[in-house]
Amino acid sequence: QVQDIEFTQIEMKVIEGLKIGNECLNKMHQVMSIEEVERIIGETQDAVEYQRQIDEILAGSLTEEDEDAILEELNAITQEQMELPEVPSEPLPEKIPGTLPL
Questions:
Q1: Cα–Cα dist 82/70, whole Å
Q2: Is the whole-model pTM more than 0.85?
Q3: What is the pLDDT of residues 37-83, one digit of tens each?
């Protein structure tokens, strides 16, 4: 008898979870239709194909001099981005026990 009640309570929770899940799915479907998903997938496939074509063109057209120039430019860019501020030369203040650090 007690098991039947517990099982019924679990069933009710499962049904309520399914109901909430269905409501969420319906809201999501209202926001994004099948046509919208198909359009996004199509645009993504077009973009991937376009990038593949660009990669093929670049892979076949660079000379060793072009590659060297690109690597030099890459090194210059990464060096610019890695410039760090100067480190202070004076020693750090000593921490006094029981106080907050400055």
A1: 18
A2: no
A3: 899 999 999 999 999 888 877 777 767 888 888 888 888 877 765 66
Max alpha carbon distance in the chain (Å)?
85
What is d(CA 62, CA 24) in angstroms, rounded to the nearest whole number?
Answer: 52
Burial class (CB in 10 A: 0-12, 13-18, 19+), 93: exposed
Which tokens hold the place of 92? 């750090």
d(CA 89, CA 70): 37
CA distance 54 to 50: 6
Residue 46's region, left for phi above 0, alpha for psi from -120 to 50, else beta, is: alpha
